[in-house]
Amino acid sequence: MKQRSPRGAVTALLVSASLALAGLGVIASAVPRAASATGTGRAALLPDVVLRPMTEIRIQKSKGVKLLRFASIIGNSGAGVVELKPDSPTRSAANDCDGDGDPLNDRQAFQRIFGDSDGDGVFTRGVDTVLTKRFAGCSLFHVEHDHWHFEEFARYRLVKPKSGRVVASSEKVSFCVRDSLRFDPTLPGSPFPQYYGSCTQDSITGLSIGWADYYGSNLPGQELDVRGLPDGRYCLRTEADPADRIDESDEGNNGRSTLVRIRGRRVRDLGRAC
Ligand SMILES: [Ca+2]
Ligand SMILES: [Ca+2]
Ligand SMILES: [Ca+2]
Ligand SMILES: [Ca+2]
Asked: Could you say which ligand is closest to the alpha carbon of residue 140?
């Protein structure tokens, strides 16, 4: 069992990040967790997965299909990196992550958590080199995107604002997780240029500190099926790491919501958390 020890600087950073996110529609409930000790004896530099505001909210309608499309931006505000390393390819049945009988079309993915070797409270590549790894989930080849994805990295739901009844959902959205947008260069340890970039079967993927991955509204998966849904107000909710596959410093700030009004082929973001 891991032990957790408080680190003032890291905690202050995370509290300040949480405050900055308040008022931007972030669903934040939990107190940030302090960095924890690893089996290496060094304090663990955990990432903090966060969602940026949803953008590009629009309706796409064609051939009887009506989709609510939107862009998502998932970032890392932590003192450490999100780093995912796929296992080596083997024909072992244990590596058949998705259970379809083929061990070669998927890989087990492990989260790598770096220890704070120099004790400065933040991850520096090449300095903080000692790491532990833990099983995080599956990495699979996605034909639609023509590259490898980490499974179940986000969840999208449209709900009735008052009752909370789910009227449309996409429960297991997967991505190649990489640095595509530097959303906060002021965060300590934020590198330039980006570090995580490619999405082959052997790539180490992830999110650097202060970097996010942008998933545009045109991408497969960035939609909810709203055909047959009456016009009206709905709450669009997104959640990063919904199955808690990534160990991070704050598990309570991974959701975001915005109230939208749908009228026929139009949708308006009313700009209010719900
Ligand atoms: Ca988080
Ligand atoms: Ca498989
Ligand atoms: Ca360090
Ligand atoms: Ca998590």
From this structure: 2
Which tokens belong to 163? Answer: 């009752």
**8 Å CB contact between 257 and 25:** yes
Say if residues 187 and 223 touch (Cβ distance below 8 Å).
no
Compute, in angstroms, the gap from residue 3 CA to the centroid of ligand 1.
19
| Average pLDDT along the chain, 274 residues, taken 10 residues at a time | 35 36 38 46 93 96 94 97 87 77 86 97 97 92 77 95 96 90 97 92 92 95 96 98 97 97 97 96
**Which residues make Cβ contacts (< 8 Å) with residue 128, sequence separation at least 6?**
42, 45, 114, 115, 116, 117, 118
Q: Is the whole-model pTM more than 0.85? A: no
Beta strand segments in 104-229, E:
106-115, 131-142, 147-159, 166-175, 181-182, 205-207, 211-215, 223-225
| Residues whose CB is less than 8 angstroms from the CB of residue 58 and which lie 6 or more positions away in sequence, other chains included | 68, 69, 70, 217, 267
| Ligand minimally distant from the alpha carbon of residue 76 | 1
Q: What span, in angstroms and rounded, lies between the C-alpha atoms of 56 and 260?
A: 12
First-last CA distance in the chain: 37
CA of 248 to the centre of ligand 4 (A): 5
CA distance 255 to 21: 11
Opening angle at CA 261, ends 260 and 264, nearest 5: 130
Q: Measure the CA–CA gap between 29 and 61, rounded to whole angstroms.
A: 36
Question: Considering every ligand atom, which ligand is closest to the CA of 9?
Answer: 3
**In whole angstroms, what is the distance from residue 166 CA to residue 172 CA?**
15
Q: Is 60 exposed, middle or buried (0-12, 13-18, 19+ CB in 10 A)?
A: middle
